[in-house]
Specification:
Length: 102
C-alpha cells in the first residue's frame, strides 16, 4: 500500500494532537506543593512521585515524531512521482512554508 498525502497529513496531525494532549495532561497533573526540608541556609522541596515527567517526555517524543513525519512528507514521492529538491526551493512560497514548518 502506498502512502498518500492524506495518510501523511493524518500521521502528522495524530502525532501533533497526541503531543499537545500529553503536554496539557502533564501540566495539569503537576503536584500542587511539596514537603519543605530545611537545610543549612536552604530549603529543599520534596515532591511526591507523579507521572508528570513521563508524560512530558512522551509529549516531547511525539513532537519529535510529528516533526520527522512532517519533514519526510515534504520530500517523499507520491504515486511514484517526485519533484527534485532544486525545483521545490525555487518557489518562494514553498521556501517560506518550509522555514516556518522547521
Amino acid at each position: 500500500m502506498a502512502v498518500t498525502m492524506k495518510h501523511m497529513s493524518l500521521i502528522v496531525s495524530l502525532f501533533g494532537v497526541l503531543s499537545f494532549l500529553l503536554g496539557v495532561i502533564a501540566e495539569n497533573k503537576k503536584p500542587a506543593f511539596g514537603t519543605p526540608i530545611n537545610g543549612k541556609g536552604v530549603v529543599i522541596c520534596k515532591y511526591p512521585s507523579d507521572p508528570t515527567v513521563a508524560l512530558g517526555y512522551l509529549s516531547a517524543a511525539f513532537l519529535l515524531a510529528c516533526t520527522i513525519a512532517g519533514y519526510k512528507s515534504l520530500f517523499m514521492s507520491y504515486k511514484g512521482r517526485s519533484v527534485p529538491n532544486s525545483v521545490l526551493f525555487k518557489s518562494t512560497s514553498f521556501s517560506v512554508f518550509f522555514n516556518i514548518a522547521l
